[in-house]
Design goal:
- The chain has about 700 residues and is an all-alpha fold.
- The protein is about 75% helix and about 0% strand.
- The protein has helices spanning about 5-15, 25-45, 45-65, 70-95, 95-115, 120-135, 140-165, 170-195, 205-210, 215-220, 230-245, 255-280, 290-295, 300, 305-325, 345-355, 360-380, 390-400, 405-430, 435-450, 455-475, 485-505, 510-535, 545-565, 580-600, 610-630, 640-650, 655-685.
- α1 packs across α19 (about 405-430) and α8 (about 170-195) runs antiparallel to α12 (about 255-280).
- It is globular.
Length: about 700
Amino acid sequence: MSWLRALKETARSGLTLERQRLEPLVALRGALGLALVVAGALSLFGTVVAVSAAFGAFQAAIATYQRSWRPRPVLALASGASLAVSTFIGYLTAFHLVFFVAMLALWTFLAGLAWALGPTVGIIAASNVAIMLVTVTLPTSIAAAAGHAAVIAAGGVVQAAFVVLLPVRRWGAQRDALADALAAEADYARRLRHDPTAPFDPAPLMQARRAAAVTRRQARRRPAELHGMRGVAERIRPVLAALADPAVGVPAEGPERDRVRELLSAAASVLTEAARAVRHNKPLRLPPSAVAALKTPDTAAVLTGPARRGAHRLAALLDDVTETARGAGTTEGPHRDRPPLLRLVPGSLRILREELHRDSPVLRHACRVSAVTAVGYIVGTVLPLGHGYWAPMTCVMVMRPDFSQTYARSVARFGGTLIGVGAATAVVQGAGPGTYLSGGLAVLCAFCAFLVLGTGYVASSVFISAYVVLLLGMGGEDWNQTVPERALLTLAGGVLAMIAYAVYPAWETPRLRHRLADWLHANGDYAAAVVDHYADPAGRAGGDIRQTLLDARDARIAWRESVKRAEHEPVRNRGLSRDAAERAGEAISQLGRGALLMEAHLPDSGAAPVPAAADLAEALRRDTERAATAVRERRTPQWDAVHEALDHWDRQSAPDTVLRTGAGLVAEALDDLTEALEPEDEGVRGGAGPRTRDR
């Protein structure tokens, strides 16, 4: 993609508003907490301290909106405390330009590295640096700086208290995650009626799994309908796939297929109603027709073999879902542990150390954002515009580890700031509101910012920019700066961010093959673990299968995110075009599907072993490991060991029908992968095809 087209696409993305369900009660709760902080600080300490307290409460409220399954009060407290520390340390060096720029560069570098711990930590760290650039200008002494830090932390405490005292949809995020997983499986069942090999996106199941991790205290309070249903939903998915697929289920047409369609339709209805009951915490109402279709004794007469077993298993699993949705489960028993924040510190430090190498995109982001923020601060200070923090604040807020988000947010930031600052400055300079009216308007802007936070960065930028202007105007700090001056500084910060990424990028396109290889290796391990269970049903638990399945899902999500980030990058492919990537991804998906079909019919512990399966499992592990290396090195993957194991199996034994059919589907998928990658590999070896310089 050319640079011109890339800029056009990212600009369009940055200015796009998404249709999201608004949560006015949650926004109102954050605004009420902010209003209480502003009013209390004004009455007790005056306007300047109230401005600092308001920034702390605002940042704490923003933190509670992040996509994290950590309890919201914890996020608010952590955000308020970290902003307080940032403000105090920043003020200690603010007396000298060189010292402050050095501190700013270091603090921003650490905030950039924080993206290795996840987007929630990265966003909170970046926001802290941005707000710190404003709050360090407010105190006048070290004692005053300590006081400002204290009221900033107090703002976080107030927001945390409001989350506890005014709960809105208690367990709402966990309910939505589980309901989304059930709804995704319901949609999958409907699509299987018309397309027996329809794909399934496991992302909702992964989100539900992350949401299911709770602390010991939360486990005792968790509603019964949120306990255990996710595990049942996980087991439903392979049963649906195996029941519908003609390879291991029933013929493509005929009375058996008609009965399977009825079962799939009934399963979709049950799962949809279960999702509704969980999401809205309402009684479960099952359609009588769906219950009748699942319970009819005619199923045993129409279906035979694996299809009959699958139908009975599906009915049993759906019974478990409905019982749990009715609240018949229990909140006691084992749960996925969510460790407290302090216990995560050693692991977090290890993750950060692992990112300290030259090819790390997170390290590159940390270097970029620290250098650009320091330069932006110097530029804003040198320019005779006053309040130069608008430039570095823009830099740290718009820069992200990937190209698309950085450029899209730069455009959105400038557009949103132009509107928000223009409107707020017009109100301040035209109407001349007093302290309390300015504070009230700032709280109103904060409410609007909370409300539209999920609709797009351009919308939130409008209200956040207006909030900053009105809040500083309340303290008499920013009355004299005009709209063009603020817009110019914001534009300078955005342009610096965009130039920095162009000069020192971390392109995702050259890493596509590595992501593809990781996904291939993970799916190969999953298929091998499933086949291994057939070789020794009594000696192997399902733990290996479960863990390899989770690893395969993580690798798939990483691959899809990588493809999405690379889509608008202005670089050419490195031997993996968009068409080849799509076909290779489809082949690896089919590899996982073959393993899933075999998993749906895993033998019981008392079943007879299939000795040939052990050789096939070892061949799968060996060949996929070698193939992953070949994909990374731009060579054609080969599957000699897998085909040899299958040929030997066919010559020496009478294979199990489901296992042998699934193994054949796996082998076909591997051959399709070779076909998807081979033409481009040949072109590269022959000297054809463009190469991208790895910068």
